[in-house]
Write a structure and sequence with these properties.
mainly alpha; Cytochrome C Oxidase, Chain A; about 75% helix; transmembrane helix; NnrS; membrane
Length: about 400
């Protein structure tokens, strides 16, 4: 029976054997194209593209729900196999789910009824969550139920954003998109809290594991969900000095994690310093929100983009680079160009947050080059079989 299962797995084209392959590659290419188009529109280099609700609505929706959700799906659909010991999504079911994601991206640019556009978006996230729930619940993986909770809340935020699109309500769109960013931060914190110390330990040959701190993990989960709910309600979109306490608390917890995980040797290993630097943007984003609520920062969007570009973009790029090597049976030595990609994504985040609007094009260029380097260097790995002959 095991021999038959192995033969069936090897009969599937490598790109469709596990979720990380297609979703990482397509998500990276989409990140490059989407920000390039948005930058061209902002610079007036191309005419405004006719999409439902306008290009701002498209940008708000597609970065968390098109780009980030694709990478999250690729990672979790692969990780759940290790967590449960049961086969992950592959072959035709994976192709169907990926096709739904792709159709949802293309639907913005073809003349379809608004109901079809909205239906495609919600169908993808709904089927993805259903697959995750089926595997985790059947295996009684209660320690991973918080991930299901955050995914469900993320789907509700997408529904809120799409309701704003359908009603032409800019406030609803903004509330849904910003709440989604903080939920993605929660996922980055949950997953990063597991893998960054583990990767650091393994990458530096450290014999002892980092000590766990469950109360900090739970506090970050609750605090991040609260920040998302405050944004979704609209209350958090107005400066409230008392809310600075929440974000200072989140920043402190992220800082404690970084301090505990830090070892001087990380700076010799691009796969490690990229993760630590990207995680530091979670701290900076939280501090930025605290400063805005206190009236010390002129725009909340500066903190939001520290979260979106630095933390979300940076951690996604670093995680894809590390996970793709491990799951394709390759040595944990990324192509040399990836050190430049990691530097570029951090430079892009710094420019987006600290430089004026005249430099947005350069921030977008840094982002695009970072994901282009990943796509060019990792596409052959993701499209070919594992080096060790494993069917994954």
């Amino acid at each position: 029976m095991q021999l038959l299962d192995r033969k069936q797995a090897l009969a599937v084209l490598p790109l469709w054997r596990l979720g990380f392959r297609a979703f990482f590659l397509a998500g990276a290419v989409f990140a490059l194209l989407a920000i390039a188009l948005w930058a061209l529109v902002l610079q007036g280099a191309v005419s405004l593209v006719a999409v439902p609700g306008g290009m701002l609505a498209w940008h708000r929706h597609e970065m968390p729900f098109g780009f980030a959700l694709a990478i999250i799906a690729g990672f979790l659909l692969t990780a759940v196999q290790n967590w449960t010991g049961r086969p992950g999504l592959s072959g035709r079911p994976l192709i169907a789910l990926f096709g739904l994601w792709l159709a949802a991206r293309l639907a913005w640019f073809v003349p379809v009824p608004p109901g079809v556009l909205i239906g495609l978006q919600l169908a993808f996230v709904g089927l993805f969550i259903a697959q995750m729930a089926r595997q985790l619940i059947s295996a009684r993986q209660r320690n991973n139920y918080p991930i299901l909770l955050v995914l469900a809340l993320l789907a509700l935020c997408q529904s809120l954003t799409l309701a704003g699109l359908a009603q032409g309500d800019d406030d609803l769109q903004r509330r849904g998109a910003l709440a989604a960013l903080w939920l993605i931060a929660v996922l980055l914190s949950l997953i990063g809290g597991r893998v960054i110390p583990f990767f650091t330990q393994r990458g530096l040959g450290r014999s002892e594991a980092f000590a766990p701190h469950p109360w900090q993990d739970r506090a970050l989960l609750l605090g991040g969900v609260l920040a998302a709910l405050l944004n979704a309600s609209g209350y958090g979109l107005q400066a409230q000095p008392w809310l600075a306490t929440l974000f200072v608390g989140l920043a402190t917890l992220h800082g404690l994690r970084l301090w505990r995980w830090y070892l001087p040797g990380i700076w010799r290993v691009p796969l490690l310093w990229s993760l630590h630097l990207a995680y530091a943007w979670l701290l900076l984003a939280a501090l930025g929100m605290a400063a805005w609520h206190l009236g010390w920062l002129p725009q909340a969007s500066l903190a939001s983009h520290a979260l979106a570009v630095g933390a979300m973009g940076g951690l996604i790029l670093a995680m894809m680079a590390r996970v793709s090597l491990g799951h394709t049976g390759r040595p944990l030595q990324p192509p040399r160009a990836m050190a430049w990609a990691f530097a570029l994504i951090n430079l892009g985040a710094l420019l987006r947050v600290a430089a004026g609007s005249d430099w947005l094009w350069l921030a977008a260029l840094c982002w695009g080059m970072a994901f282009a380097l990943f796509s060019l260097n990792y596409a052959p790995m993701l499209c070919r079989a594992r080096l060790d002959g494993h069917p994954g």
